[in-house]
Design a protein that fits this description.
Elements: H1 7-10, H2 12-42, H3 50-53, H4 57-83, H5 113-117, H6 119-126, H7 128-158, H8 166-169, H9 173-199
Helix pairs in contact: 4-7, 4-9
């Protein structure tokens, strides 16, 4: 008999991270609202209430430019770890041997339904994780673009200047500065865990090799 675990024990990792997300998002919304109203006050404009602020370009731009980079990071990480290796890293598959994730899926009573269905559904399911992250990246980028352009046009109007159309803003340096400054930090964090996990350990973490593992052994070695 397998031991019965509570719902919190079984789902503790997702519960904690979703709770941290909500707390940080609330903190961002509140402090962003205060900052935005401070900027409006400096320009002699009336402040806005908290609820309308959540739909404002200021909040949308700040939120989705960060989400966009996170989903890009995870999409690239999932795809590149299929093809590329890093000797000694806990984040890499074995340099020489095929691993459990490389085997062809088998039908069975406990297999997910796309596996048993086969055909196009199986092909789609085999790449569903990277496709989901890619879709989330695209949605976040579109929302970032919308918020950034609306914020830019608000600034332009306050200065008596014309706003930017959708087609013209796609080449605006403001949009790409916001994106690149977040993208580079995400790639830095991935490079850090790939490289640091060669030499450093965290006892009990699946993101680390065993404490006594040789430095030149990959996570799948």
């Amino acid at each position: 008999m397998k031991p019965k675990h509570s719902f919190i024990y079984r789902n503790g990792l997702s519960i904690v991270f979703l709770s941290l997300l909500i707390l940080c998002l609330i903190g961002q919304a509140y402090t962003g609202w205060l900052q935005n109203n401070s900027e409006l006050e400096e320009r002699g404009l009336p402040p806005i209430a908290f609820a309308p602020y959540l739909a404002s370009p200021h909040f949308i731009e700040a939120t989705f430019e960060n989400w966009e980079s996170e989903f890009l990071q995870m999409a690239m990480y999932v795809v590149l770890t299929v093809m590329l290796r890093q000797k000694g890293s806990a984040e890499s598959k074995s340099l020489d041997e095929k691993e459990e994730v490389d085997r062809e899926p088998k039908k069975g009573p406990r297999a997910p339904w796309p596996v048993n269905k086969g055909g196009g559904w199986l092909k789609l399911y085999k790449h569903s994780l990277s496709l989901a992250f890619l879709l989330l990246f695209i949605v976040s980028f579109v929302l970032h673009f919308h918020g950034s352009r609306a914020h830019y046009n608000d600034e332009q109007r306050l200065q008596g200047k014309p706003g930017a159309s959708v087609s013209s803003y796609i080449g605006n340096s403001k949009l790409w500065f916001e994106s690149f400054q977040n993208w580079q930090s995400e790639f830095l964090s991935v490079a850090s865990i790939v490289i640091l996990s060669i030499f450093l350990r965290q006892w009990g973490s699946p993101e680390s090799k065993p404490v006594d593992a040789p430095h030149d052994e990959t996570g799948g070695g």
